[in-house]
Design goal:
Keywords: Membrane, Transmembrane, Transmembrane helix. It comes from Pseudocercospora fuligena. InterPro entries: UstYa-like (IPR021765). The chain has a domain of 192 residues. It is built from nine helices and eight strands. A two-stranded antiparallel sheet has the order 1-7. Strands 2-4 form a two-stranded antiparallel sheet. A hairpin with an 8-residue loop joins strand 5 and strand 6. Helix 6 crosses helix 8. The longest helix has 25 residues. The chain is flat. The termini are far apart. 8% of the residues are buried.
């Protein structure tokens, strides 16, 4: 009787195994097809390549890379042969403790500022890259017999030149430089004033253009004769700075000679723009 029941049960079960859908449900789901596997691999590869490309341009942890500098700066001939790098720098924000750059006018202070590159001569931009770095083709050119190209100055060093002039025109420094009569102070006072206010506004625009979004906290200090500590802004903050010394050296090594032949510059050609007044 038991054997008969077993045979009967097997006859009932066998047809059920002939349906693939039900067989799969009894055995569990099958693995992914070859097409699905290939699709997943392609997506993974594309994601990796996209991530690598973004990382190569935007990785702040490396503090270097031309992709970053091209995002935040205009094109520059410096990028052709100098790696712009960043490092963390502690600013000296002391209110009362002066460094050499803050001292009253004198030869020692002037040397310190001069070593920053505030008086560097122009360098020459090759004609082949002039337009790519923002030079108009009808701007002043070097005579072809002296190698051609376009005289130009590094803007960051011009900013330092301007800051130095503002220092020199501070009311406690002005008489000293006026008496020396060198550089900008060869001119009449009203031209010195125009020069100084030009510099003032150049620096205003630069600071607004590259506005620092860092924050300054406050410290407690104990004034003499006061019972309670008082708050005071902590100006000694940390900043991520470019490798200034490398940039300064690059510009120093490429300066035009101090003295050049009278025909060093080519006269304007027909069709070149000649301004009717200083812009």
């Amino acid at each position: 009787m038991a054997c008969a029941d077993t045979e009967k049960n097997e006859q009932l079960e066998t047809p059920l195994l002939d349906h693939p859908e039900e067989q799969e449900s009894r055995q569990g789901p099958s693995g992914p097809s070859a097409t699905q596997t290939a699709f997943v691999l392609i997506i993974c590869c594309l994601s990796f390549l996209l991530g690598f490309n973004l990382a190569s341009h935007l990785r702040p942890s490396e503090f270097s890379g031309r992709g970053i500098i091209k995002t935040v700066s205009r094109p520059s001939p410096i990028l052709s042969n100098l790696d712009i790098r960043w490092k963390e720098v502690q600013f000296n924000g002391s209110l009362l403790k002066e460094n050499i750059y803050r001292k009253d006018a004198g030869p020692e202070v002037d040397i310190a500022w001069k070593e920053l590159g505030v008086d560097y001569h122009a360098l020459i931009i090759p004609s082949s890259i002039a337009q790519s770095v923002g030079i108009d083709l009808d701007q002043v050119q070097v005579n072809d017999k002296y190698g051609g190209g376009y005289p130009a100055n590094i803007e960051g060093l011009h900013h330092l030149h301007c800051l130095n002039l503002l220092r020199q025109t501070l009311h406690w420094n002005y008489p000293y430089y006026q008496a020396l009569g060198q550089g900008p102070f060869k001119n009449e006072d009203f031209i010195v004033k125009k020069h100084a206010t030009h510099c003032l506004d150049i620096l205003r625009q630069q600071l607004m253009c590259t506005v620092d979004i860092g924050v300054m906290g406050q410290i407690w200090w104990q004034p003499k004769g006061v019972n309670d500590p008082q708050p005071f802004v902590d100006f000694n903050t940390k900043h991520i700075c470019r490798n200034f010394e490398d940039i300064r050296t690059w510009a120093k090594e490429r300066q035009m000679p101090e003295k050049v032949p009278k025909d060093f510059l080519s006269p304007p050609k027909k069709g070149d723009r000649v301004w009717s007044e200083i812009p």
